[in-house]
Design brief:
Structural class: alpha+beta
Helix content: 10-25%
Number of strands: 9
Radius of gyration: 15 Å
Strand order of the largest sheet: 4-3-2-1-9-8-7-6-5
Amino acid sequence: MTMMVVIVSCKKNVFDIITDNDFKYWYRYNALDKLEGYPTIFYFDNQNKWKVFEIVPNIGFREYNGGDNLIGDKWRLINDSTIEINGVHQKIIMVSTDTLILGKKNGDNDTLCTVPPNMIPQRHYHRW
């Protein structure tokens, strides 16, 4: 019985870190961003909503619409070591209050770093 309580507690901790107990923006630091397009920012909230934003030169901060790809707006923890984002499972390699490293099936990693609230335009800094 004690083991079960510990596992639930760990999952809650990871969830609370990812969402900051409400919502949180994470910058995706990835060398491929330069090839794929614009700098990317992920939004996670404690209602399991997920959004993608991008920073476009001469336009600024905007929600990413997916282009030709349909993207969902849901995320969830499978356990304290796996996250599902938009239907894709990724291994949580490391999580702290300011860094989240996710492993992809192809062996690449996504490194996410927290974004200070003052870096998000005020009209976008809220629960979605």
